[in-house]
Amino acid sequence: MNEESFHLITSFLDSELKVKALLTLLELIKHLSCPKSHVMASVVTPPLFKILASEDTEGLELSLEIICELSSDADIRSSLVSMGIISKLVPIFTEGNFVECCLKTLRNLSDMEEAVVRITRTDRCLASVAEYLDTGSPTEREHAVVILLAICSCSAEDCLLVMKEGVIPALVDLSVNGTEEAKSCSTKLLHLLRDMRRSDQFTNSRSQEVAATGTVGCSQQLSSQAAGVKVVQVFPKKAEHLLKAPVTHAVLRTGEVCWSW
User: Fold this and answer.
1) Which pLDDT score, from 0 to 100, does residue 242 have?
2) Which residues span the domain enclosing 109?
3) N or C: which end of the chain has fewer CB within 10 A?
4) 49 burial via Cβ count (<10 Å: 0-12, 13-18, 19+)
5) Rounded to two decimals, what is the model's pTM?
């Protein structure tokens, strides 16, 4: 289909034929083998975003389904993210509405660094994803763990943000009771978080050793390149109170799986 056809269909989104127009768009996009990204971004997406931002519940679900379909196309994802799709989804799924569709869209987008940045920085977004990791349906939990794995694969700082949401017990449970993909992803994420935490503990231990020796000279900065975690500058015999406290040891058990922290 050409651009004029999409213009014609979207022109009905402000009329009583809105639902039929949305259904037509959804079917067309599902069956387009190679959707034109510039047409989707400039013609189709803006009126859909308008529906998401309105109190119009009639077209909300269909609009979300269309956006979810678009988010599966690598050429369109960047436009969706730059146009602010993540901030528009958050008020919807944080209220418990159309959660699976919203999480699937975030999952499709999460292989983009820009999307990861927005997920972690948009108010309530990361916290809500972590919540559905624990309380969602099997499919919602799967979407959530894939999103969190993508986030933690970016940097140690992102790992720390995820750990602050208290996801470890839910990940351990999911590694046993989730879907096959959820089990695999949760296990990978647990290994990633555990390795990062142990590396952080090693960094703290080395920092304490340096502080205890009373080394003379300028301030020395220790860092863990593997974990990407920077430690505060150490001033001899004056910085013990700035160092992180040792991480307590814990063992989490679920079924036959045991994770040591």
Assistant:
1) 26
2) 3-189
3) N
4) middle
5) 0.77
